[in-house]
Amino acid sequence: MGKEGPGPRLGNEKRLVTAIVLAAGKGSRMETGVRKQYLELEGRPLICHALEAFEKSPVDRVILVSGAGEEEFCRREIVERYGFKKVEAVVPGGRERYHSVYEGLKAAEGSADVLIHDGARPCITREIIQAAMDGAAAYGACAAGMPVKDTIKMVDDQGNADHTPDRSHMWLVQTPQAFSYELIKKAYDRLFEHPSAQEGITDDAMVVETMTRHKVRLFKGSYENIKVTTPEDLEIAGIFLRKMEKTVDI
After folding, report:
1. What is the pLDDT of residues 120-147, one digit of tens each?
2. Burial classification of residue 158, based on how many CB atoms lie within 10 Å of its CB (0-12 exposed, 13-18 middle, 19 or more buried)
3. CA 84 and chain centroid, separation
4. CA-to-CA separations, 146 to 125, 175, 238, in angstroms, rounded
5. Given CB 3.0 to 4.6 Å as the disulfide criterion, which of 70, 93, 180, 209 pairs with 140?
6. If DSSP codes are grouped into helix, strand and coil, which group holds residue 90?
C-alpha cells in the first residue's frame, strides 16, 4: 500500500479551513477546583487566548469542544461574552482527548483542512497558524514542534538510565496539528473501529501514523507555545503573553 491521502496541493485554490479548539480537559494537575481552561490568565479565561488567535487568523471557522454539559456555559460566558464570531459550534467532548477530537471532526464536516489545537496552549501566534494551514495544504498532515534542548534518557522499569537517544532527531511536539479533513477523519474512523489501537494515543499525528501510512511533516512552532498543565505554567504563559503584546505594540 502506498502513501495515503493527498499529495502537495499548494496554490491559489480557496479551501475551507476549520480550527478545532479543545477545551474539554479536566486539568487535574492544576490542583484547583476550576477547570484550567476557565482559570484567569491576563484578565481573561485561559481558553480565550487561543480562541482570539484563531479569530484573528485566516481560518474560516472554529469548532469549540467543551466538557460534556458545559456547552451552554461556554457559548454564553466565552463565545458570546468575548465576541468570538468564528466559533460556529460548541460541542461536548468525551472521556479521552481522542474522543473529544472525534466529536470536533464530526462537527467540522465539509472542511477541506482542519487544524486541531489544545485550548490550554494560549501563546499560539498567527504565524504558527499560517504555517499549519500551509503545511496541511502542501502535505496533508503536519504538526508544530521544536527540537529538544535537553539530553533525553530512556529508563528501564526500575528507573535506571537504559540508553541515550540522539537528540538531533528528537522534537517536542505541539499543536496545532493540521490535516486534510479526508485524511484525519478516515484515520479517526479507523481508530474507533479498532478499540485495541486506542491505547497510548496521545495526539492526532499519532492517530495518522498508527491508522494510515501517511507521513506527518513537522514544522517549527515556538518554545513559547507551551501547554498550561501545572500552576507554574500559568505564570510562565502570562510572561510570554505580555511579551507578545509588547511586540505587537511596537
Report:
1. 999 999 999 999 999 999 999 999 999 9
2. exposed
3. 18
4. 15, 11, 20
5. 180
6. strand
Pairing label, strands 61-66, 87-92: parallel
Give 144 or 28, the one with higher predicted confidence: 144
Grid coordinates representing 20? 478545532
How far apart are alpha carbons 227 and 124 in whole angstroms?
10
The residue assigned the cell 496545532 is 176
Query: Please, are residues 88 and 20 in contact by the beta-carbon 8 Å criterion?
Result: no
* Angle, CA of 111, 14 and 112, to the nearest 5°: 20
Residue 47 CA to its chain's centroid (Å) = 12
d(CA 3, CA 187): 13
* pLDDT top residue among 73 and 13: 73
**Alpha-carbon gap, residue 83 to 60, rounded angstroms:** 16
Q: How far apart are CA 141 and CA 207, in angstroms?
A: 11
